[in-house]
Structures are given as C-alpha cells and as structure tokens.
Amino acid sequence: MKPYIHIINYWETGIPDIRTSKFFDKLNFISMTRDSDYDVSTLAQESDIAVVCIDDHKEGCLKKIARIAKNMVKMEIIAAVDADETNTGIQALQSGASDFMILPAKASTLDIYINRALERIYLHSHICFNENCYKSRFAHSQRNYQQLFNEVPCFVFVQDGEYNITDANRKFEEYFGHHIGEYCFGILKNRDEPCRECPVRKTIKDGTNQSSEMEIISSDGEKHVVLCYTAPIRDASGEVTQALVVLMDITEARFLEDHLTSLGFMIGSISHGIKGLLTNLDGGLYLMETGLNANRLEKVKEGFDMTQDMTSRIKKLVLDILYYTKTRTLEWEPVSCSEFVNETFGLVAMKAHANGIVLDTKFESLVDDDTFDIDQDSLQTALVNILENGIEACIDDKDSKDKDHTIIFQARVDKEKVLFKIQDNGLGMDKATLKNIFTIFFSSKGNKGTGLGLFIANKVITQHRGGIKVVSTKNRGTKFIIKIPRSAPIHARHRGLPVVPA
To answer: Do 195 and 189 touch, CB atoms closer than 8 A?
Structure first.
C-alpha cells in the first residue's frame, strides 16, 4: 500500500472513532472550507486512494471528484455522503468515483471500503481491462490453440449437427483436401448418406464423449483403420452445437496384428503339409536307392519323378510363404499386355503339356496402344497361381479319362481396363469350396496345397484396384474373370512414375 490515503473535507463527526482505523497512520487529512478551492496536483503522487466527503455544497464536491478522476486516473475515489444523500452518491459514481460510503460510519466500515479499493487497485495492476489488450490476448490464445490444433499428429476436424465439416487441422487437409462445409460421410466414407450409427451425432445429442474403431477411405481409394474419439463443443449458453473429432490411424498396427495372427495359423496349417512332402521325398530317394542297388532303371525313374515332384512342391510352398510374409510396395510401370500374356503363358506351358493339358491363349486389343500400368512381378505371380490351380484341377479330374482337358487363357484390352479370363474344364468346385477359395490357408487339395496361392492372387488383384469373379460347376470346370484398370492409381502418379495415357 502507498503511504497516503487522502481524506478530503474531513469532518470528525462523520467517523467519530477514526483513530481506531487500521489505516490511521496512512491517512492524510485535507480539511477545506466549502468556499475554498485547491489544485489536484497537491495530492501526493504516490497515493492510491482519496476519500471525498460530500457536504451540502455538493456541486463543488462533485466537480472536485471529476477533476481528481481526470487528472489522477489511477486513483481510487471513495465518495462519503450522508444517509439521506444516496442519490448524490450515485452522482459521484457518474462523476468518476469508484465507490461511495454512507455517513455517519465507524472506522471499521471505512476499513472495508479501503480494502475494497486496494483490491481494485491490485486487479488493475495485474489485469488489463483495455479493449486492445483483450484483443491482443485473444489473438495470442487463438494462435496458440490453432498451432496446437494443426500440430496434432492425427486427423482432427470439427463437425456440426448437420454432418458438415466446419474446421479441420493441417494433417486432415493435407490428406483429404480442403472440404470445409461438406458432409463428413462423403469425405471419409465415400457415401451419399450418413452412417447408420454416427458417434458424432450421439455426442451432439447427449453431450457425451464417444470412442469407436472404424474404416475410412482416402481420396485415392485407400482404406484406413482408425480409432475415432469425439468430444462436445458448447456455445456460450452451454448448449452442445458441434463436436470435435480426432481420428488416430492404426492401419499399420492392425495389419501387423493380423499378419502375426496369420503367421501363427500358417505355421500350424502347413506343418502337416511339410511333413507329408518330406515323407514323400524320402520315399522317392528310397526308390532311387533300391533301383540303383537292384539295377532296375524303372524304379530309379519312378523315384526320380517322385523326388522331382516333391522338390517342385517344396519350392512353390517356400515361395508362397516368402511372398505372403514379405511386405513390398508395388512398383508401377507401363507394360505391353500382349507381351505380358505371352510371358505368363510360358511360365506354365511346360507343366500343362507334360500332363497332356492343352493351353490355349487368346489376345484381343480394342485400342492401338495395349500398355497398362501394373507391378509386373506381382500380377504375374497372381495369374500363374490361378493357371496352376486350373492345371491341378485338370490333373485331379481322374474320372474323366476320355475328356480332353483344356485351359483357356484370354486377355482383352479396351480403353479403360484389361479383362483376363482363365477357364478350365477340370474337376470344378462345389458351393462350399467356391465360397472359401480366397480364404487364407483354405485348400481343397489336402496335402498338395498350402491355401496361400489364391489368397495371394486375390490380394494382388485388389492392390491393383481390380476385381475377380469365379464361376464353377462340379465336374465341369471353373472360370476366373479378372478386371484390371489400365491407369496407375493417383498416389503412383504423385511419385512421378511413368504413366501411359489410356
């Protein structure tokens, strides 16, 4: 507290016990007649408070208050008025006083008013009440929160009750684009109508936080698994008008989890198959050994054929496992479809001819340029898996000895896509088998299959943004219809890979 509290026009009868005030040693009494005047500069510059007692010459007192308020802007002015002059106290407030007290009063009452004045002085010295100061602080806070909003390493956006996106952070806009004012379900789900169970809608309705796991689709068609958290945003009246939505991408974590689970299933599923292959391999070696010892070439040939077959199966099994377990990014490049078909045909032709199966290829292009953007190695692996599946189906069709087994490998190129058809007249599949052919580790071949070939084929075709359809009839054969877009996906173009226009 500063040294002086001025008491102007003091009358002792107003506060008879003023000497008992705890501020008494700080009081500076200025007693003036009603006709006298004074210069406000006589007030000590270091003082904080002036108590102005208003007498019946109130107009002069109010002018004094106005002059003090104008020249001593930081000074707290307490007007002291008689009990029947409360209106004068209000006029004093209008003239610049910050408070008024009723006389007569006790010293303890004066102490209350002085304490209140000191509290106001403290607030003014520590809090800025200036409008520009408010604006500056608000702008500073807004910048801080906007920076925090943008730096969060998640997709963050604000949504209203009508499913409109009203704000979004930098990560959201970098990934999905600028979509303020658009429907959330159109941007995140590629839908034309709201989701059946919307956590944001529930948050806005009852003001509760919601959390869930969901799939979203990016602008280039990639699916992502995200954890969705919502929180209510309330207006000044406390009503929930919007919701804050935070999406945490856990795609890689879920992929790793599924991958590890699948690896566990794979180890258990193929262990018996490996054991069977090794047993047959031992059998082939035994036949070769006994044939050599007995000088019987037919037994040596039988053992050699068995060993060669088992070696081929083990090689395919290992390659399937390596392909499944390896994480690789597709390497897009323009490839001639006719050359691709001929090369793929060559990889399976020998096996087909060795088993008396006719492999017929047909190629048709409806456009001059037959190139399409693919990862050649992976798509070729997928089609070879399907072709070898057809060869095995023909080999296993033992009951149809008089049937001429044929596999047709057909490709047609148009402006937008390449259509592959792979058709065999082998064993065919029943409905139960047809339903599960793309399920991992499902095989209808017993120990001959791993259940990975068609699973990998389907996965590769999906990665190429294509589709696969299967038609099969028991004992009549199976047809695979595969559609592959000719152009590379958007993200491949952004990486600067060469793209031949369709």
So the answer is: yes
